[in-house]
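Quarterly update from the structural biology core.
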Amino acid sequence: MLHFAVAGVPYSTPGKGGTLEGLDHAHSLGITAMEMEWVQRVPKNEEHIANIRDKAKELGIYLTVHAPYFINLNAIEEEKLEASKIRILDAMEMGQLAGAHSVCVHPAFYLKMDPEEVYDNVYRATDDIMKRANKKGLTINLGFETMGKVTQFGSLEEVLKLSKEFGIYPTVDSAHMHARTNGEWNTTEEWNVLFDMYEKYLGKKSLKSMHMHYSGIEYTEKGERKHLPLKKSDARWKDFIQVLKDREIEGTLVCESPIQEDDTQLMQKTYSKLQ
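Predicted structure, tokenized:
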């Protein structure tokens, strides 16, 4: 099954607008998944996290997590590198407690270094994270995201190669890829290349448990500027949805549009009408 997820609590959620209320509201809208946006900090109240898990299970809502933005696995300063590792591990630990399936992570910045050297640094940091995660009994997926700016580590090939080495799978953000390449990755042919590459690196079964992001996006020659509503962008989103249907892709597609629940429902309804 392919779940269409809102990125965080729907904006139209009444009342306090917390995660529990957001889950109820998403369910009322017919939305079957949510990505918990822990982009500023990871919540540590285990009782509250357990309540989220129970509520999501009750409603049949599929959960993923977005880890804090303040992460750089290519950090030169040891304290910054260690802090990045801890944020990832905290997101994995609390995400697993919440019953989430995958944690989206912005992996690193190049810092004007050679990309191969950066890859090696990110590899070593990931190796340490995975060893610590194993000791904690964490089995939730660590999903390094394809990134939208040319200054950021996170090309499709980089995250696929890294994921293959650790038996994990990435968060594929097609909008980021579109912005990073100043307009590429926006056709049926290119999306088929994307999924062919994904299958080549991670195997055919991997296409049944993907973690993806999608939206319209504004960009320059330097890459991403901001996310846009689907209909106010150059995103060929209907063609993208058709490829997902034709390829029988499964997992979660998180909508990061500024009008998140509207565009989530738009994609979900469009997908459901396809043959």
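The chain has one domain: 2-273.
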